[in-house]
């Protein structure tokens, strides 16, 4: 841990609970600069990207693994470092082993959850490559594509584009991604990140290598939890034994492990405690839905959908007894400026995407199909806190 992080842990801010030093450090959607215990995966990625150190483009590749295996954390940390390599627009580094280091390709990271259209994708790539700001309005997709051809046509080394979260609901599909890259010059290499096995996706027809990222081993996940707690919590707030309990329960899924830690921390903070207890951990396990959708998916939804979900997680049992009751309660809130019809449509859309679930009521009164309620497929405490912090 660096000096800045150590100082931050000891800072006291008025009105902030003493237990919690930094909510973002505990967040399942936050990636830290040095992911814990992912050395072998980093080495495989570096082996694949090795041509860039000689100023050449690597072939396309597909990185895959289950939710919470650290795919995004490792790749974003690696690309952050690779972006510091000298490119054609930067000064050349001189070393003791050779007179001049070859310039390397540029590196661009794109989140398919955010770039769900052709325009958004090309805009994200171009905006990362040029110094001037690229306008979001008043230009067309063809203009962006032409500008990209112009920019990339003037470079000898090209660019490596990582596209994360490919193939998820509401994100860029595998076939669409292939078409998007087909519209770019040949000096573009890509690294796609998804959850499907190589045999289940068309991406591997266009890649030279598939790199698997497996679930975290239990001790690795303990290290992840303790690393996050060392930054986000007061000293000795998380006992090593409780971290092991969370890691065992999470079964290798760092997203769920961090979400459980977040919930337990929130419980302890609300109770005014300086340390987490087994009861806090058990309470967190009870809140976590099974299966749990990634909070990254939830927090990448359009603002109006997130506003609907924010109201949903605060509704009581009566207002959640049916879709109709839930719709009326949310549309009647002063915090949501949406009609009942729009709210209901959003709920149905998010149920299709797996963000919420329609659960049929066991009790039935009268004739016809029993009503169904809407349950979130994500931990309400974590979403509520992160949503409020970002407003």
From TrEMBL:
Region named Disordered: 360-379
InterPro entries: AAA_16, P-loop_NTPase
Protein name per UniProt: AAA family ATPase
Species: Haloarcula rubra
Pfam families, alphabetized: AAA_16
Residues covered by the Orc1-like AAA ATPase domain: 38-187
């Amino acid at each position: 841990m660096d000096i800045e992080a150590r100082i931050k842990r000891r800072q006291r801010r008025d009105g902030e609970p003493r237990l919690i030093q930094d909510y973002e450090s505990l967040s399942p959607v936050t990636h830290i600069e040095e992911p814990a215990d992912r050395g072998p995966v980093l080495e495989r990625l570096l082996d694949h990207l090795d041509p860039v150190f000689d100023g050449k483009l690597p072939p396309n590749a597909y990185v895959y693994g289950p939710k919470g295996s650290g795919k995004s954390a490792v790749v974003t940390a690696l690309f952050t470092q690779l972006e510091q390599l000298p490119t054609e627009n930067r000064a050349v580094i001189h070393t003791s082993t050779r007179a001049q280091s070859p310039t390397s390709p540029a590196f661009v990271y794109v989140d398919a959850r955010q770039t769900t259209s052709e325009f958004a994708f090309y805009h994200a790539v171009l905006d990362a490559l040029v110094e001037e700001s690229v306008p979001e309005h008043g230009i067309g997709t063809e203009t962006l594509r032409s500008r990209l051809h112009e920019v990339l046509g003037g470079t000898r080394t090209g660019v490596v584009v990582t596209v994360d979260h490919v193939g998820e609901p509401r994100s860029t599909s595998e076939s669409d991604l292939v078409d998007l890259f087909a519209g770019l010059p040949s000096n573009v290499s890509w690294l796609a990140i998804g959850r499907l096995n190589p045999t289940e996706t068309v991406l591997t027809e266009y890649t030279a290598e598939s790199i698997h990222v497996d679930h975290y081993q239990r001790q690795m996940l303990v290290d992840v939890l303790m690393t996050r707690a060392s930054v986000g919590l007061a000293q000795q707030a998380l006992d090593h034994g409780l971290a092991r309990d969370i890691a065992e329960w999470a079964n290798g899924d760092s997203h769920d492990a961090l979400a459980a830690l977040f919930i337990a921390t929130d419980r302890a903070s609300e109770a005014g405690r300086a340390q987490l207890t087994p009861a806090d951990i058990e309470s967190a396990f009870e809140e976590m839905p099974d299966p749990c959708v990634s909070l990254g998916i939830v927090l990448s939804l359009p603002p109006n959908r997130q506003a609907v979900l924010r109201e949903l997680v605060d509704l009581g049992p009566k207002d959640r007894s049916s879709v109709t009751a839930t719709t009326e309660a949310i549309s009647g809130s002063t915090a949501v400026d949406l009609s009942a019809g729009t709210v209901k449509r959003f709920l149905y859309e998010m149920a299709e995407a797996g963000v919420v679930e329609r659960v049929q009521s066991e009790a039935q009164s009268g004739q016809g199909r029993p009503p169904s309620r809407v349950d979130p497929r994500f931990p309400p405490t974590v979403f509520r806190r992160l949503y409020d912090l970002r407003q």
